Amino acid sequence: MDLQYGLELVGTFVFAISGALAIRELEHDMFGAGFTGFITAIGGGTLRDILLDSYPLVWIGDVVFLYAILAGILAAFTFTNFLSRLRKTFFLFDTLGIAFFTVLGVEKALSLGMRPEIAAIMGMFTAVMGGVIRDTLTNQIPILFRKEVYASACLAGAIVYLILDHLEIARDLNLLISIVVIIVIRLLSMKYKLSLPQLK
Amino acid sequence: MDLQYGLELVGTFVFAISGALAIRELEHDMFGAGFTGFITAIGGGTLRDILLDSYPLVWIGDVVFLYAILAGILAAFTFTNFLSRLRKTFFLFDTLGIAFFTVLGVEKALSLGMRPEIAAIMGMFTAVMGGVIRDTLTNQIPILFRKEVYASACLAGAIVYLILDHLEIARDLNLLISIVVIIVIRLLSMKYKLSLPQLK
Amino acid sequence: MDLQYGLELVGTFVFAISGALAIRELEHDMFGAGFTGFITAIGGGTLRDILLDSYPLVWIGDVVFLYAILAGILAAFTFTNFLSRLRKTFFLFDTLGIAFFTVLGVEKALSLGMRPEIAAIMGMFTAVMGGVIRDTLTNQIPILFRKEVYASACLAGAIVYLILDHLEIARDLNLLISIVVIIVIRLLSMKYKLSLPQLK
Q1: Which residue has the higher pLDDT, C144 or C41?
Q2: Which residues are bridge partners to C29 per DSSP?
């Protein structure tokens, strides 16, 4: 439980950094950057909890999450150049972030008594909807709709978690496998420029 | 009740198809198409139920709706060309869909004890907000803001339903009249290229 | 309490006018204009209440707000040219509106037992998110992300209110000071074209 809480905080921190840096090229001011950092960090989990009627929202019930976000935004402001040069590192961080948030979202939905189909959707939403809301507010095409394998990797990982959970595999092992599945799908699809087919 | 449930499922199925096909020209992949199909199908009813604090959401409480959406997305994937050529058929389906969802939304709000003014807004939201959210996420101007008579036809039909309901007309007859009103307004406005005046 | 209620109604009325006029250049029809007027007037408070799980929503529980919005939309339709020429007057109205809604949002969050950090965010959201949702739906960059000092003035005013509240200053005086702080920051930043620094 403590490990999960710690990882959730780290994920929130990382998402706040990536959100704040995401609009660097858009010539927004620091307030705009902080705002997108905040939205990116809380968006997915907030949407999930509103859909599931699970209150209070995580960041409203536990103020530590707000401070993790604030720390992420300040880090983005202070080390803008340094962090921007770390593109590869960031890609890894973001991939880790979506992998972990997917599994967190699945587990939260299951703990609220949801069916596995709903839990899979909630896992994916937790991971990607913060970025989708950020991109929509800043008038960009959400990453979800670009060619990359992104949200589909999360959905695949969520389904793997649910299958292994159904097979009653130990939770820790399941967490590890599902997270690795998401990371591997994302890394391989980037390396070999794989994408899903288009409708024609 | 069974008829209503069946029609709601058919409406959900049709909206999922039209949502999945809507982004065909945007070069999104199959995952993106499925995602927009899903959002289009659930968006309006989900927004309505969140605003009215009515939980569980329809598609979360009854998994059959999820499978209707999945079937719609798979139909869009399998018969893409065939369905795309059916423009006129689709226009009719969409018109039927918004007409039916408008009345469903009004009835749901009334059944939750809402005033008629709120019920009219909820009817319109149920019909059009799924498409509005889809268009916003994909960076397009929502159909609501284009020149066509679209959401205003839904609002007119909702008001007709509420007036007839106030006059204590039999529900089945009222359903039929209100749905026909919406369809006729939409068809006539398309045929004669009618539109509401602009502000100047 | 009566003064607060009256001011909230006036604020809602003014926001509906400014929302309806905001899309004048976009060649939308009257329905689209009315829709954006509605969204602008209810958006911020609705988002706040959904995040805080505070139901019924203000405009659903008290139909008077709906009529204030309708009056604002009709005023925008009737006096379009006259109101559009009043740019400066409108800027003042909007500034008054965001100042007052910020403080209302802070007070509502506090009255629901929220921590000051959450109350500050809710104050800012109440003031600016209606406009953000409107701009997002109409495919424009939200004012929040433009160079002007806008949402940050609200956040500053919310923090001033919370500090003075912590110091147990009389509520009426606190209301007045916080609202004046927001107005002065916004007016000065417009007059001297001040803006926050960008990330680089």
Answers
A1: C41
A2: B198
Partners of B198 in the β-ladder: C29
Which residue of A lies nearest to C195 if distances are taken between CA atoms?
A29
Q: What is the DSSP string of C69-88?
A: HHHHHHHHHHTHHHHHH-HH
Pairwise CB contact (< 8 Å): A66 & C117: yes
Confidence of residue B138 (pLDDT cuts 50, 70, 90): confident
Q: B86, B104 in Cβ contact below 8 A?
A: no
Alpha-carbon separation of residue A87 from A21, A184, C112 (angstroms): 11, 18, 42
pLDDT in tens, A58-69: 999 999 999 999
Q: Which two tokens stand for residue A46?
A: 């907030």
ipTM given for this complex: 0.91
* Closest chain C residue by Cα to residue B139: C139
CB contact (8 A) between residue B147 and residue C63: no
Distances (CA, A) of C53 to A63, B40, B54: 17, 25, 12
Beta carbons of B60 and B38 less than 8 angstroms apart: no
Assess contact for B108 and B54: CB atoms under 8 A.
yes
Q: Is the dihedral of CA B21, B2, A114, B43 positive or negative?
A: positive
Please report which helix (H) or strand (E) contains residue A180, including its range: helix A171-191
Of A27, A57, A136, the CB nearest to C198: A27
| Helix%, strand%, coil% for chain C, nearest 5 | 80, 0, 20
CB–CB of C36/C26 below 8 Å?
no
- Contact criterion met (CB below 8 Å) for C106 and C158: yes
Q: pLDDT by residue (tens digit) across C93-122?
A: 788 889 999 999 999 999 999 999 999 999
Tell me the C-alpha to C-alpha distance, in Å, between residue A106 and each of A57, A61, B43: 16, 20, 21
Indicate the residue type of C163.
I
A30·C198 Cβ contact <8 A: yes
Output the six-digit token pair for A60.
Answer: 């409203």
Q: For chain B, what is the mean pLDDT?
A: 88
A179 φ/ψ angles, rounded to the nearest 5 degrees? -65, -40
Query: When comparing pLDDT for A172 and C87, which is higher?
Result: A172
Across the interface, do B63 and A145 touch by the CB < 8 Å criterion?
A: no
Interface of C with A in 138-167 (CB under 8 A): 139-142, 144-145, 147, 149, 151-152, 155
Enumerate the residues of chain B whose CB falls inside 8 A of the CB of residue A115: 63
Which residues of chain A lie closer than 8 angstroms to C195, CB-CB? 29
Distance to chain B for A118, nearest Cα, Å: 7
**Spatial separation of the C-alpha atoms in residues B111 and B116, rounded to whole Å:** 11
For chain C, the chains sharing at least 3 beta-carbon pairs closer than 8 angstroms are A, B
A76, closest residue in chain C (CA to CA): C199
Chain-centroid distance, C-alpha A131: 8
CB contacts of C189 in chain A (<8 Å) are none
Domain boundaries, chain C: 2-191
Largest Cα span, chain C:
50
